[in-house]
Amino acid sequence: MERVKVTIYTDPGCPFGFNAQRQELQLLWHYGERLDVTRMMIVLTEKSSSYEERGLKPEMVVANAKRLRASYGMPMLTEPRDRLVATIQACRAYVGARIHGDARADLLLRALRRRAFSLGQALDELETIYGASQDSGIAPEELDSWLADEFVERALREDMAATRAPLPEALALPQRLSRSNGGLRYSTASAVFERDDRRVVMPGFQPFAVYEVAVANVAADVERRPPPQSVEEVLAWAPYPLATAEVAELRGIGLDQAREELQRAGAKLVPAAGDGYWSAG
């Protein structure tokens, strides 16, 4: 049976993408074996800048971070950064891993996000990118070859172009898109679901229920895997340590109950940004 093609538009430096990891884990748990997922890099900005240059104030960015953390419970720092960082080099590193068919690409994206939002490291600094690559088992010389590869650069520019050419269904909901150089682009966590001649376009950050509706509309015969029955089952399945909010999302429970279940299970917590990441004990 043909698998469902899922294209997700994201960026390692976007706070909405960081928080959308909860919904994406749900998607992979319930339908992962029947999906082919491709993550396209938006590249929020190619050049680091001051807040003033972008017409922003630090307190605006801090307020948004606090709202997201309060809403979704992810381990996300809320202190102001000294600048708005370019994400192009981090995106280039991810695309390099992706187009070389490297299974570590999603581990790299996860590591970049964790370093940026939970540890406060800047994505426009090579030290951060090399650190994330080592977290993912990617040797520095491999990363160097990807960053200098003309095919990687071409693929990155194709990602950027596709992001800035939303499908008609997305353009019908301009309020769910973002502005870019006078035009519209997919906002972070936008997704397109396709199989055969069926297609559902999901612009913008959405709850997991919308992902489920999209899957049902393009592939009604795809069976939904039941929710996990324990945190042990979640941690054994996850390819990397999970935040409390991610475990809670997968289990369908609150943050406090998830934390209690994890502690009872003897899971190990690495603290970060007021919460942390759990792995099996």
Q: Can you offer a commentary on this structure?
A:
The structure is a single chain. The chain folds into two domains: 215 residues, Glutaredoxin (3-Layer(aba) Sandwich), CATH 3.40.30.10; 49 residues. It has 13 helices and nine strands. A hairpin with a 2-residue loop joins strand 5 and strand 6. The longest helix is centred in the first third of the chain and has 15 residues. The mean pLDDT is 95.
In percent, how helical is the residue content?
A: 40-55%
Structural class: alpha+beta
Give the count of helical stretches: 13
CATH class of the largest domain, named: Alpha Beta
**Poorly predicted parts:** none
How far from one another are the termini? 38 Å
The counted number of beta strands is: 9
What string gives the helices and strands in order? EHHEHHHHHHHEEEEHHEHHEE
- Radius of gyration, taken over Cα atoms and rounded to an integer in Å: 18 Å
Q: How much is the average pLDDT?
A: 95
Quaternary organisation: single chain
> What percent of residues are in strands?
15-25%
- Provide the CATH architecture of the largest domain: 3-Layer(aba) Sandwich
In order across it, which strands form the biggest sheet?
2-1-5-6
Largest sheet: 4 strands, mixed
Overall structural domain count? 2
Principal-axes shape call = globular
CATH topology label of the largest domain? Glutaredoxin
CATH superfamily of the largest domain, by name, is Glutaredoxin
